Amino acid sequence: MALVVICVQPSSGKSIAATCLAEALKDTESKPYVRIIDETTFHLNRNQSYTDMTAEKNLRGVLRSEVDRSLSNDNIIIVDSLNNIKGYRYELWCLARASGIQYCVLFCDVQEASCRKWNEDPREKGEPYYDDKIFEDLVRRFEKLRVMAS
């Protein structure tokens, strides 16, 4: 049916958006099978996954492989990861195209200051958050979507 790729800054509420989208899709008349693929699917820690380029490349490879295995005409796959690199989003588009399914990118345009605050909140509660160094690196390297007006 479709591949939905969420593209966001770190700590911008992407998992909440993915869950809301999945629930809304499940409530439609056609009742499609909806699956969210994210780092937690593979029990990966967000800080370990983005510690260095090798770890991040491995993470993208694991996610890409799982997306490739999961694509079919009978389900909707939501990739709930940062997907912050244009080339990686293009690779996912190629997988969708090769499978003959629709592809869309859900871009959550959240201000960096809000992301910073939302990264601090879980820290105070003892929940998972991005280490400061990793957060700064991810914000710096984020390749924002460019929307073309028609």
UniProtKB/TrEMBL annotation:
InterPro entries in alphabetical order: KTI12/PSTK (IPR013641), P-loop_NTPase (IPR027417)
Transmembrane segment boundaries: none
Single GO molecular function: ATP binding
Top-level taxon of the source organism: Eukaryota
Positions in coiled-coil regions: none
Keyword match ATP-binding: yes
A Pfam family matched in the record: KTI12
Keyword hit for ATP-binding: yes
Gene3D superfamilies: P-loop containing nucleotide triphosphate hydrolases
Keywords of the record: ATP-binding, Nucleotide-binding
Similarity remark: Belongs to the KTI12 family.
Protein name: Uncharacterized protein
Species assigned in the record: Cinchona calisaya
